[in-house]
Specification:
The chain has about 240 residues and is an alpha/beta fold. The protein is about 40% helix and about 20% strand. The protein is globular, with a radius of gyration of 18 Å.
Length: about 240
């Protein structure tokens, strides 16, 4: 969130009535808004003016929200922008697919504006850069917190906002095992309900980004029935 400027929220949604309702309520809560009514328009809007957060509908004309999310994550301009997926699809498998595509949170329609705003504020707080230390290092992994940049063995590692926060926490506490519940509280926050399985999805994405190929040792250790830890010798 940019200091002293109202956060800009890009609403990518094809239901005109819902866009009107969201725009009214979000602006009443102190946000600026911009609307896009299909996937291509949403991608263009995000590229033209980088938003602070994107509310992205799953079912969109021309291009699905999942594909829009993947393209946003591939772009250097928008890879770090928090994304909340809005959808009528409430099955667990759908939630996992949404998270796997790069979304940071997932809310099922119909939803209350109060809950949506609470989740948005939580995501915006979590995505704010960490201020105390400017860099962290562990084994061949380095993090520049000020520049929001990660490198491993000299190559750039591209992470979404949630994976960045997970890695930052692990690197601040190397070797310590954290349960899924602890990671949910630390990385996602106490005020938003997120299923424990969500942690597994983001750990998998973090591993995929860190491990460029089979020659890279996996620095994330899974501790059965306990959780995860950062470990230079996970075996």
């Amino acid at each position: 969130m940019r200091a002293s400027v109202q956060p800009l929220i890009l609403v990518v949604e094809d239901e005109t009535d819902l866009v009107t309702l969201l725009t009214y309520n979000l602006e009443k809560e102190g946000f600026r808004t911009r609307a896009a009514y299909d996937g291509d328009e949403g991608l263009l809007a995000a590229a033209e003016q980088r938003p602070d957060l994107i509310l992205l509908d799953w079912m969109l004309p021309h291009k699905s929200g999942l594909e829009v999310c993947r393209q946003l994550r591939r772009s250097s301009k928008t890879r770090d922008v928090p994304i909340i997926m809005l959808t009528a699809r409430g099955e667990e498998g759908d939630r996992v697919r949404g998270l796997d595509s790069g979304a940071d949170d997932y809310i099922t329609k119909p939803f209350s504006t109060t809950e949506l705003v609470a989740r948005m504020r939580a995501v915006l707080r979590r995505s704010a850069p960490a201020m105390a230390q400017e860099s962290l290092a562990f084994a061949d992994v380095s993090m520049d917190l000020a520049a929001h940049r990660v490198r491993r063995a000299g190559r750039d590692v591209h992470l979404g906002p949630t994976e960045f926060r997970l890695l930052r926490h692990f690197m601040q506490h190397p070797g310590r095992v954290f349960s899924r519940e602890q990671l949910l509280d630390i990385v996602w926050g106490h005020d938003v309900y997120v299923e424990p399985r969500t942690v597994d999805v983001h750990i998998r994405r973090l591993r995929k980004a860190l491990n460029n190929d089979d020659s890279d040792p996996d620095v994330i250790r899974t501790v059965r029935s306990a959780g995860y830890a950062l470990d230079a010798n996970p075996d």
